[in-house]
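task queued by scheduler; priority normal; single chain, no ligands, no partner chains; default sampling; output format set to C-alpha cells
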Amino acid sequence: MKNKLFSFFYYIFSFLLYLISFPFLVFLSFKRKYKKSIPARFFLCKNPPFKNKNIWFHACSLGETKALKPLIEKFENVNLSVITNTGFEEAKRYKNADIRFLPFEIFLPFWVRPCKTFVVMEAELWYMLFLCAKRKCNKTVLLNARISEKSYPKYLKFKWFYKKIFENIDIVLAQSEEDKKRLSELGAKQIEITGNIKTYFKPKITTKYIKNKPLIVVASTHPNEEKAILEQLPLDKFQVVVVPRHPERFDEVYEIMKKYGNIGRISEKCKVKSEKCILENDLILMDRMGELVNLYAVADMVVLGGSFVDNVGGHNPIEAAYFNKPIISGKYIFNQKALYKEVEGIEICEVEEISSLLEKAKPTVIKNRLDLEKTISFIL
C-alpha cells in the first residue's frame, strides 16, 4: 500500500513538473541541439513503443551508448533507448538495434512494453522507469554501476528515495568492491562485481611489426606536440614511430620529423594489409589509419598525445594499457579522466620531463577490467 501511494504521488509530482516546464520545452524543441530529442521524449513525436520483446538496453548519451558495443554485438537483435541526440546518432551505428528516445517519466506507464531483460547503463536511476520495467519485463539489471567517493555523501542524503528505486532492480552489476559497498548501503540487494564496461577492449592484430631497437610509439599527436616530444627522445637508443591523430596532417608531420634523423614512412615500406612489416628507420611516420593497436602490441613505451596541449583533452589509454605498456602522458586529460582512473601506472608529466621518465616508467595495469561473459550470464 505504501509503495502504491509513493508511486501515485511521484507520478503527480512528475506531471506537475511537466506542466510547469511545458512552455520551456516547446521553446527548446526549436533549437537544433534538441530538435529530435525533446519532441520525441516530451511529446512522443515519432516515438512509438518497441515492437519486439527483445533485451532492452538503455543509455543516456554518447559515451554510455558507445560503451555498450561489446554487449550489443553479442545479440542478434536488441532494443536500445537513449536520451540525447548524440546518443541517438551513436546508437544508429548498431545495425541490430531498434532505437528510441526514452520518453519522460509520465509517459512510461503507457509506453513501456514487455521485454526479456531491461538493462540500464550506469546512473540512469529513474524511479518510474524501473517501476514500469519491473512490472513488464522478465528481469531488470543496473549495468556498470558506480558511485564515486565524491558523490557518495549526496546519494546518502536521499537514501530513502534510492532504496525505493533499488526495490525494482533485480541485479546490480558493479564496477568494483568499493562500489558494491556503497550501492548496498543505498539499498541494492543482489550485487555482482563484473568490472567497468568502458575498460573492455579486445584487439585484433592485423600486422606484425618487427623492430630492430626498443620502440617508442608517440600516439595520437596534435599540432605543436610532435616537435616538443621528439626533442625529448634519444633516437640513438630507440626507434620512434609517430602517429598523428588526423590523416590530413601526415605530410605536415613528415616535414617536422625530417629535422630529427633517419626517417621513413610506413606507406613507402610496407604494403597495405601486410601480415608482417619491418621497421627499418630510427624515426618512422605512421601514415595509415587503424594501426595503433598493431604498434601497441610491440611497443616498449607509449607517449600518449593529445595531452601535452591544452585544447584536446587527452585520448583513451585503455588500448595501450591492454598490452601493459608503460605510458607517459601530459596533464591535459580533461576529456579522459574517467578512463585514466581505470589505468594504474600512467606517468603524467610536463613535456620537458619525458626524457627523465623513459627509464622509470613501469608497465600499466587496467583496473576493474570487464568480465564480458560473466556480465552476459547475468543479463540472460
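post-processing summary
- The mean pLDDT is 94.
- DSSP finds 18 helices and 18 strands in the chain.
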